Amino acid sequence: MTIQITDSIEITSLPPFVASQPKLSQWMAITLPGKITIYSGKVELGQGISIALSQIVCEELGIRLDQLDWVAGNTYVSPNEWYTAGSLSVENGGAALRCSCTYARWLFLQQASKVLNVDFESITISDGIFTSPSTSEKIDYWVLAKQVNLENPIQIIHEAFQIRNKVISSGLVGQSSQRPDLLAKLSGAAFIQDMVLPEMRHARMLRASHPQSTIVNIDVQGIEQISGVERLVRSGNFLAIVGKNEALLVKAVEKAHELITWQVPTKVIAQQPIDSLLKSMPAVTEVSYEAGHAEVAQQSLRASYTRPFLAHASIGPACALAQLTDGHLTVWSHTQGSHLLRDQIAQALRVETTKVDVIHAHGAGCYGHNSADDVAFDAAMISHVTGFAIRLQWSREEELTASPFGAPSITEIQAGLDASGDLVQWNMAIWSPTHIARPGWGTGINLLGAWAIEPAHPEAATKDNPMPQGGGLRNSVALYEFPHQQITHHFLPSVPLRTSALRSLGAYANIFAIESFLDEIAEKIGADPVEYRLRYLKNERARDVLIEVANMAKWSERSKLPEGSGLGIAFAQYKNHGAYCAVAVQIRVEEKIHIEKVWSAVDAGLVINPDGLLNQTEGGIIQALSWTLKEEVSWNSEEIVSHNWDSYPILMFDEVPELEVKLLSRPDQPSLGGGESAAGPTVAAVANALSQALGIRARDLPFTPEKLAQLIG
To answer: Domains in the chain, ordered, with CATH?
Structure first.
């Protein structure tokens, strides 16, 4: 498939999701007066994707944004577009919508041509109305809808693309359009947590601080007698309380825990440094990539970089609702993959898939496999057992202990240099568990509650995303044209804590290592870090963002910074085929690292909604700064101890630095995913700035004051 959302369009085949769901009726409907309903599998997670995809649709159909009715992530009607993940929504979801809407426009143009008795090339579409200078008559989509069969299979009509600019005049793509979801989110009840169903009961889960602990003893009668508990639901180690009064139910949770004894899973061992922990775990080792030939080196450099387990740490705890009606279960969830979650819930409950549907509802911002899917199964299970309409919300403690974690990793790099300081060897080794264990990924069931019910579903065997997308290997292949690269992957099938997808997956750690190590080499041979990168960076778009951010940050003047301050720089192309992103960070170091300013230059090809891409880049930088400076999951042999904001701190509002982001517009190039592109360059830029500020090299995340003190001491 090659579909470019530009004025110069090349199409060779249907997008995969269109090929698997080829009817127009699977992507659109025209049933409401003045509205066109669009169905999408790509959901709004706070990233602003719904407005960007809406702009693509309106641009293709020649309608206004207020004429669009958007339905996404609803398994009753929406197409299955896998997960909303990987910064692929515009690349894949946008391509699918563009293809289907272009074909729809073609069908309507043909019919309008017949009705108006004019040549179709003379027709212009604006606000959904078809007009032609050859006639005073006009017609619109809603009248024509009775004459056009949306059951038609979508086809590629090259002429439909070629005449696009002649018949469409909206100009929406490339403009910053207001997000339709923000007003309600800022002023009223817009989130899943605010939903109310008729005759609804509230529910709370009873889990130990290590979520996969099993029940040893339980006083069932004692729990049932606690004020506010209307029903106790137990199936094996799955335990929940249900009641009409949420406030009483919250109070009942603490009392109920006093009546339960738990057994921690045998796989749990006490926390130890990541490098020693991961290297002590059984591994499956393979050379995952090799290119070029290593030459004899005159000197060799080696370094190791580590990243800890990370929590999603969503400010809004997970929530889901479920309702059983005439044997059919409807679940509302802020999941990233409605169809996959539906299939897994049905399989876990041992019912037919046709008996379950999942409807996406807005939740707190989400970047990866957080708690949304697990809480959805919890609510579904309780509704399935009790028959009640259920609203279930996790607590802050559950959010920080029961959600899957971002995977830890070790990245070791050995480089060989010749006598002139040029690279002749590049060997990289990565130790990491899976970075993706979403529902529907691989075989088996990936839902926490499904592993607890009786009879229990076994935990699915872990596997990682293969190259070129990569999980732990994401962005492990340096974009630089080194004469030699070899990457060895030590995949860890089992680690003490459950891991799955977290924003950028392994790219955050791998770019941290690559871009830090390049600075170390440049320092070793006395080269400027930017100049040294440009020696090996032949991709012109990559060079452009790196040079641009260096100019933005006044790189040439960094020697003038006061003592204790530093300016660092880093670059990557996300997944080596997504957006190009370079970041420069200026810091001041006292008792801790203070981020003073961050600059970023981004090339994401044709930008559908500039404001959306700016928000994504800024948000990615802020989240990466929080990971880099503060975040680390802590546990012992009995429990996960980082279960509140005191034990798992995140970046505070007063710590957010000044941000300056520049988008390098490429309207002649395909749109590239940019939502996760800033994470890796940000952490590396901080590490490189720290090296300039204090002359120390921090290689173990996070860069807390305690770790800085150890490095200095």
So the answer is: 16-182 (3.30.365.10), 193-264+315-401 (3.30.365.10), 504-713 (3.30.365.10)
